Amino acid sequence: MRIKRKRISVRTVVAAGIGSAIMFVLMRFVAIPSGMPNTNLNLASAILTLFAAIFGPLAGLLIGFIGHTLTDLTWGGVWWSWVIADAIYGLITGAFWKAYRIEDGGFGVKAAIIFNISQILANALAGVVIAPTLDIMIYQEPANKVYLQGVTAAVLNSGVVLILGTLLAIGFSRTRVKAGSLREDA
Q1: Backbone angles phi and psi of 77, in degrees to 5
Q2: CA pair distance 164, 42, nearest whole angstrom
Q3: What CATH number is attached to the domain comprising 129?
Q4: Dihedrals φ, ψ of 57, to 5°?
Q5: Tens digit of pLDDT for each residue in 2-28?
Q6: Is the pLDDT of residue 183 over 60?
Q7: What residues make up the domain containing 93?
Q8: How far is CA 27 from CA 4, 68, 72, 106, 111, in A?
Q9: Structurally, how many domains does the chain consist of?
Q10: d(CA 62, CA 65)
Q11: Is residue 183 part of a domain?
């Protein structure tokens, strides 16, 4: 019996490369301090979410992992807890990519609601559960500090994606031809 292997598409690899580069630039050079130590308002969360929503869960996972790793490397050290949290966030938001209907021009109110519910839940999981718990397990960080940072990051990222991510998804979707909208002239 021959096992059929599914290969990673060129489209996914290219999306992961471009998305990671944009995420790196935004996280590294456009981070806005939040007032909470080591926690910034990042426009990169909107890009990660948009790319995951368009290209799927594997692209989201790769962009979150690579983009955050590159950013941390330029700051002097990788915080694997937050890298893993961003990768899982990208995976989760990308898992619903077909429901968003961005690619076929169908990103409307229903899709925007699904998009935002999934990103808020994924941000809560990544920022409030995964990253702080791993901070405690890996780096022995104080729980009260990392959970407060996690809640702050989850709220800020959810807000950025709610506003900027939704606007980007609407804008990109409008550039796409709606499924079934082309008709043959008689």
Answers
A1: -175, 145
A2: 11
A3: 1.10.1760.20
A4: -65, -35
A5: 666 667 899 999 999 999 999 999 999
A6: no
A7: 10-174
A8: 38, 8, 9, 30, 27
A9: 1
A10: 5
A11: no
Residues in the chain: 186
Please give the pLDDT value at position 4. Answer: 61
User: With contact defined as beta carbons under 8 Å apart, do 16 and 59 qualify?
Assistant: yes
Domain for residue 181, yes or no? no
pLDDT at residue number 38: 86
Sequence-ordered list of residues with C-beta below 8 angstroms from that of 142, at least 6 positions apart, any chain: none
Distances (CA, A) of 44 to 14, 22, 58, 81: 18, 7, 18, 18
Supply the pTM of this predicted model. Answer: 0.91
Type of residue found at 142: P
End-to-end CA distance of the chain: give it in Å, rounded. Answer: 50
Residue 182 covered by a domain:
no
Give the pLDDT confidence of 91-111 residue by residue, as tens digits. Answer: 999 999 999 999 999 999 999
Among candidate residues 186, 124, 129, the one with its CA nearest the CA of residue 161: 124
Site of tokens 């909208």? 181
What is the average pLDDT across 39-49? 96
124 inside domain: yes
